[in-house]
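Q: Structure tokens for this one, please.
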Amino acid sequence: MTEFLLLLLAHVLVDFYWQPTRWVTDKKEKKYKSRYLYFHILLVIIVSYIALHQWQNPLPAIALGIAHGVIDLVKISFDKKGSLTWFIADQAAHLATIAFTALILTGNISIGFEALITWFNTPKTLAALSGALLSLSPISFLVGILTKPWREELSKLAPEADDNLASAGRWIGMSERLLIFVFVLVNQYSAIGFLIAAKSLLRYNDKSTEPGIPPAYISKKSEYVLVGTLMSYTCAIAVALAVQILSRKFK
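A: Here is the predicted structure, written as tokens:
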């Protein structure tokens, strides 16, 4: 575990703190011809070597640096728009190589994989993962269906109103539900109250209106947001409580 954490720290520093923007831009433009790609690989090797402080064995750091460069090259070659999917895939690949390197260093590859499989196959883990996934998109669709009549009513009141960012509400809802799901599992119910209060403050400016938008629209939209939020929170809490019950029953 120590080796993994040391290499993870090195990765975070090199990838997010010690990589200037001009390096990233140059890599995207020139790909494997960019000198900064190789500077970045060299920096990964050096920092990983220092982090591990196994002075007689530089091979793990060198292998990790080369793997890091290959992963970065694949990402910049296929990710044309800087998408979230590619970012997650890129970081997941880096984490996998770091974990694999750490397991090799500790000589616990088979033990590590067996422990991972055992952990994954426990009812508690499966219930938590299923509950977390259920709290995201499935509940978004459910809340969307339940609030559709009010959304259509708002559209009729102000057809020209364009006061929402594309997909922002869905992502906000999923983030809130995931936080609530975690808060319930760790028995931090007071944090849910803080989350509700914070959202109420952020919605305060909705009381103002723009020319051409009827005041009724603002009032009804506030009610629509409140109903959708309460539905979303209720579903997340219900799912988390169900996971808690299942985890206790099938220990």
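A few notes: The two ends are 26 Å apart (CA to CA). The chain has a mean pLDDT of 83.
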